[in-house]
Amino acid sequence: MDSATENHLLPEKRRLLEALLSHAAFDGWTSQALARAAQDCGFEAGLVARAFPGGVFEALDFWVRETDQAMIKAFDARNGNALKIRERIALAVMLRLEIAAPHREALRRALSLAAMPHLAPRFLAQLYRTVDAIWYAAGDTATDFNFYTKRMLLAGVYSATLLTWLDDSSEDFAATRGFLARRIEDVMKIQKARGGLDKLLARLPDPRRFMKRVRPTG
Question: Once rounded to an integer, what is the mean pLDDT over residues 72-93?
């Protein structure tokens, strides 16, 4: 779908998604749930096919992107970049979860599909987009190998925190906030240890200089 068509259908896509989330919470992410959502909205099948050519899983992708963008806007509104980096990450992660909170059961049903081999790449792509959006909101400007390291580490933190949050019944998700703070602290320790290792390696002699002095004999 080209961008002009997608923008033209954006109101319909959002209406259809909102209806779908209600059905997905009970029926899962199925074509039947999408059809019921279309019926709720009074949309014909042709419009649904234009809105989500990839069917219900394209609608799921759309939800992830919409929630990521809503998180970035909420983060900016909270002046998140005035915080320390670990506080920025914690804020962005919690905002991302809070935005999804009204549809926690639909999210749970979506995650139950992640173990299916043919869907795993799609869920990994969604996870990458989300952690990339969190780092973007936090003001990350890394362009070197650290770019990927940060996202790999945050993917683990976010995934574990998400699973904790899904079963969290504490007030204001206090248990999830505590869990997230501990995981971020663990990551900061890893980063500090890695930084120390990088400094140590930088002080070591370049092995290539040694190898130049060694010539094979024969």
Answer: 94
pLDDT at residue 6, rounded to an integer: 57
CA distance 4 to 135: 28
Nearest Cα neighbor of 44 from 5, 8, 73, 12 is: 12
| Rounded-to-integer distance, Cα 80 and Cα 35, Å | 40
Q: Is residue 115 helix, strand or coil?
A: coil
Q: Which phi and psi (to 5°) does residue 164 adopt?
A: -65, -45
Rounded CA separation 196/198 (Å): 5
Give the CA angle between residues 103, 104, 110 to the nearest 5°: 95
In this model, does residue 200 exceed pLDDT 60? Answer: no
The 10s digit of each residue's pLDDT in 70-81 is 999 999 999 998
